[in-house]
Write a structure and sequence with these properties.
four-stranded antiparallel beta sheet, mainly beta
Length: about 120
Amino acid sequence: VQLQASGGGLVQAGGSLRLSCAASRNILGYYTIGWFRQAPGKEREGVSWISRSGGYTYYVDSVKGRFTVSRDNAKNTVYLQMNSLVPEDTAVYYCARPSERFWSPNSFDEFHYWGQGTLVTVSS
């Protein structure tokens, strides 16, 4: 099952973007979905995740209050709304899932399958 992130682009600091994550088959609802990013020259880092129902979300401190993760299982899509963007948010963003359906991860280390990323560039 392939995951595909989309919605990236070039935006000025203070602007907003909404990323989407879709799956090749209608299975997204079986998985907690995480968002990750990798800035140039840096390691990939976890940003946020959302439980299968959408009832639980997690954010790293650097994006709390600015990013919002949500999902629409009927549309087989998970979203990452990014507001008040800063140049440090520039990265390739990926969505990912755990290995097993119905698995509830406790850390970003438990996401093992990543989709194609989308580039977000924030200019100052």
